[in-house]
Amino acid sequence: MAPPPRNGRPIVGPYMLQELVNDSDLPLDGDRQGVTITCLEAWASNLYVGTSAHEILHLVSIPPTPNPSSDEPAKPQYILASRNPAPTPPAGAGSPYIKQILLLPTVLRALVLSSSGLLSFYTLPEFSPALPGTKLKDVTYIGGLDLSEDPQDIPEDDRKLVMILNKNKIRKIRIGEDARLVKDIPIPGALNVMRRGTIACVATNEKYALLDIENMQQMPLFPLTSTADDPTPAPGPAQPQSSIPRQPSPTTTSSGSASGSGTPSHPPRVSSLTSGRERRNSSAAASKEANTQASHNRSVSAGNVTRTSGQAERGGPARRGSTRGGTSRPSSRQSLLPPPDNNRAPSPRLSTSSSQRSSSGRGSPASPASPTKPRTLPLPSPSKIPTAPRGTLKPHIASPTPNEFLLTTGTRPEDPGVGLFVDMNGDVTRGTIEFERYPDQVLVQDGWVIATIPQSGLMMHKWDVDESAIEDPNNKGKIPLDNKVQLKEVLELDDTPVAGIGRTLRLVHLPLRAGILDEKSELPGDARRNEEERVIAERISKVESRLLIFEGRKVWSLLQSPLVLRLDSRLPNFSDQNFDGIVSRIKGVLQVLAEVNSIEPTTERTFHEVSFIKQKCGLLVLGELLRITSRQTSDISAKEIIRVEEALLESALDPRFIVALFGDTFLDDVVEGDKGVWVYGGISQVFHGLKSSGEVGNAFTRDVLMLLKRYLVSWREKRGFGSVGDEKEIFSTVDSALLRVMLMLDSSKYLVEKGKTVVSEGNVRNELYRLVESGLENRERTIEVLESFGRLYVLSILYSASKQYKDVLKTWRRILEEGDEAGEFVDGEERIKNYLLRLRDPDTVEKYGQWLASRNPKLGIQVFADENAKVKFEPRKILQILREHAPDAVRSYVEYLVVTKKNTEYANELIFLYLDDLVDTLENNESAIDRLKLSYASYCALESPKPTYHEFIVENSPPSDEDAWWHNRMRLLDLLGGGSGYEVAKVFEIVKKYEDLLVPEMVILYGREGKHAEALSMLTHGLNDFDTAINYCLFGGMSIFQTSTMITDREEQKQLFKILLDEFLKLKDLSMRVQQTSILLKVFGSWLDVTHVLSVIPDSWSIEILSGFLIGALRQLVREKAEVGIEKSLGRYKNLKTHAEYISKYDEIGPTIERAN
Predict the structure, then answer these.
(1) Are 1120 and 1111 in contact (CB under 8 A)?
(2) What Rg value do the Cα atoms of the chain yield, rounded?
């Protein structure tokens, strides 16, 4: 049975009916309104209808008139070409009617069988009487065409072999320009026959049998009906005497014979499709219950088959469960073998190949026989075989493959029936098929068994599926019908247009920006495109079929339901009101998607059908995801979301269509172009449904945005593919939408869901940067989107990728001035500095260098001062720029010149800059004055030994970020005491005003001016820095904070020590005076004159205080006296040595004689 309806829509089954001929199409006279159709056949736009009025109507199909304004395909019309009364039946025939029509297009002949048993011949296609005088009587059935041959192939002898059944025999007749009898086969009571090559399956009103029509051999199979208590034994193997006697023929018989195989036979293989279901007996209650069973289910039993192979020879019941699954039937195999005849050419073996064909089964002749090894399954219990009187059922034969026949068996018409598959050896080859009631007709087409079931309708079931898929609703079908209908497989029928396919698969122009209200708006060229699409839709709306259903005076085509209608009926409708079951609907759609993914398109229509279903599945799931909540998202697996993604990609749906579903914001990114966006009509309807929803496109989960991102990234990879139409518009849309979705994912609104997505995500921000660097299609739109999101840093990446360095700097400047909410421009000032160092444009470097210097003097001056900079400026030019635009950076740059580059040319300027800063601090910062005074008091309070004042203030300096003026003062002291020249007088004039606060500065300046007494006095009495005072005497006033240069003039040192001694003797603290004086005399007494020391030392001091100095002085005097004596001795030695060298040289030269002239 078909699956239940979903959302109020019926599920389309495997087959559907399409009206072909109605009452008005049949040209019947007014007095013959009771005439009905009794049989029909079709070939090459010709429909031949046999009626109950014993005449044949020849109808011809004419093409319909195209209707461009309609989405539905126009139906073909049938008009009457001729009305042909059948030959007059013999007297006593009652009310004859046309029973059967058989067409032989390869020989242009038609055979018409009357219910009176009279067979007549006609020509094709006009259906004029043919073969005058040739008529056959007492015919019950005509057929037996070789299904392994193509009906359109012309036979070698221009004749077609037909098997004609009458009451007593089967006649083989070749039809061509005349009718020639080939052979009569004496089989009485034959009702039906179907042939594959030389093997025919014949049915009587009692049983089935296989017949070798060349060698006149038959193999009985099983009865049409049987009961558990039937005294008649079930047919076993054919007996040796079953060979049919040969009869003389007016024509030459076919050479060759069918050779059988000697392999053991196999019992029926039975598969259970209805677990626990048992075949009922003939009671009324059991029959009623059996009628409720599902049709076409494979039975647990083999029906009423009672195989007794070999039983006659062994005299006992057949063995079950053997290794081959049954017993052998050697006699039945041999009964099909001809006697040895060396003069006969070998004939092909009977085919048992497992290859399958379509319903018609026409194709190449049967291949050589190869026995099929079945699985070993138990035979059904005889108690489960229903009982019923025999002879009440009509036998049915079909051929699903070149090697198999499908035969029906049962008990009574109201009881279930069973279909069995047998091969050319008579073995059951596969599981059985069960019908809820014994069918009126059975045929096989394209893997489906189709049967007309009384009081039920048409039932379909797949016969070529695995047992695991038997209960799949997709492998079953039913078309309920109230009246009894007849089913006919015709020779050839024009393709039938199916309503709904064209409307669904026709491409239409969908204005995305205009919205639903303007959907009828057209662009230039739409009319021509619409006509082209109409022609295509009309072509793919036609479905091939050779099955007709007729009842009364109506004829329908029985069509395999197009894939698009079957699968589309299983998809749910998107409903804005139905919010329940979102996740279940998504999973249901994905199931359909998985099914369609397994289909490989082989025709134009199938390609469009598969594409449409994939697109609709993707859109429906996307529509559900667009309104799903984060909680519901957790119920969907990553695999399912990826499948939606893959479906959207594989469907090749225009990405502009997908982008437009994400709301008005994304709609601004869509570029439709001059041609617009064309989609399937069915997809357009889904789009309108989604857009009309108040929930779709208003808010998104991070998972949905990630899906859109991945989809658009995949589409970007198709850039440059020749298969992509409207490339410029499509990739402009893709780039803009992808940029937008990445910006949304990287915004604060959606970042809260980061790490919680169903599908794992990478670093979206890095992907965003790479996207912008790679280049986007619509540059103006890209800038607009980035500006709208305030992502200036990403905008600078865009400028950088296109070498627009001025715009890069301009954007970075905006970030620093306006703020960086995204936190992307880390160490922005440093990056600007490094960027400027690499530029070669002097104007740009000067412009942004001075701006950076005004914000960050330290970094700003590096733009001008760095040795690695591509643009060089002269210091004077730099100072000019800084003084004008960044005054606060001037001192930093001058410091760089003086301190780092050792350029003393700017030392004087730097001193005054420091001095100005220091003076300003002293005048406006009372805490600075207090700090200076405290440092002096703290130092003076230290007891000896103690560090120098310079060491003291260095160790106790505050952090540089707290009191910058203090550190500037330290640099000022270094500059004042350094070797660079500066305007001492001018500096002294300024510092003099603060001499009580700037004592070190005054000491240095006194030293610079040669006022050593004042300098030593301040060191001694102002600071109590005695060590620095001693250093002053040793190294000079210019080296108060440096010791790199020593005074070489000892006399000057002696003078300074003399002054220092006087200052020490002026110290107010007696103990300090005695201590420092004694140390000075002891350590540096050699620089002092003894007489002066003794004259200035107070007489009250004890000799012990001066003992060290006096001992040293005396030692110095002794040392000096000794040194004088040594110097004299060395002088005398040098004189003697020189005199001796003179005499020696004199003797060496000798005298010189000078003679007078």
Answers:
(1) no
(2) 58
pLDDT, average across residues 212-240: 66
d(CA 492, CA 124): 14
- Phi and psi at residue 1046, to the nearest 5°: -100, 140
> Using CA atoms, how far apart are residues 409 and 388, in angstroms rounded to an integer?
12
DSSP 168-195: S-EEEEEESSSEEEEEEE--TTEEEEEE
Please, are residues 735 and 782 in contact by the beta-carbon 8 Å criterion?
yes
Whether 590 shows a pLDDT value over 70: the answer reads yes
| Angstrom distance (rounded) from CA 109 to CA 176 | 7
Q: Report how far apart, in Å, the C-alpha atoms of 593 and of each of 468, 568, 589, 617 are.
A: 21, 11, 6, 6
- Judge contact between 725 and 770, C-beta under 8 A: no
Check whether the bond before 945 is cis (ω within 30° of 0): yes
Q: How many CB atoms are located within 10 Å of the residue 90 CB?
A: 12
Q: Which of 637, 644, 652 is nearest to 623 (CA)?
A: 644
| Residue 462 near residue 400 (C-beta atoms within 8 A) | no
**Tokens 């444009």 appear where?**
841
Length of the chain: 1157
Two structure tokens written together for 1124: 């004088």
Q: Which whole-number Å values give the CA distances from 1064 to 533, 702, 854, 1068, 1073, in the listed order?
A: 117, 85, 52, 9, 6
pLDDT, the chain, mean: 78
Per-residue pLDDT at 1008:
84
Q: What's at 461, amino acid-wise?
A: H
0.85 surpassed by pTM: no
- 3-state helix vs strand vs coil in the chain, percent to 5: 40, 15, 45
Supply 576's token pair. Answer: 């804005």
DSSP E strand stretches across 187-297: 190-196, 199-204, 207-212, 217-223
Angle at 210 between CA 209 and CA 213, to 5 degrees: 125
Please give the residue that has the higher pLDDT: either 526 or 305.
Answer: 526
CB 1016 within 8 A of CB 1056: yes
What whole-number distance in Å separates Cα of residue 235 and Cα of residue 242? Answer: 12
User: How does DSSP assign 33-61, residue by residue?
Assistant: TT--EEEEEEETTEEEEEETTSEEEEEEE
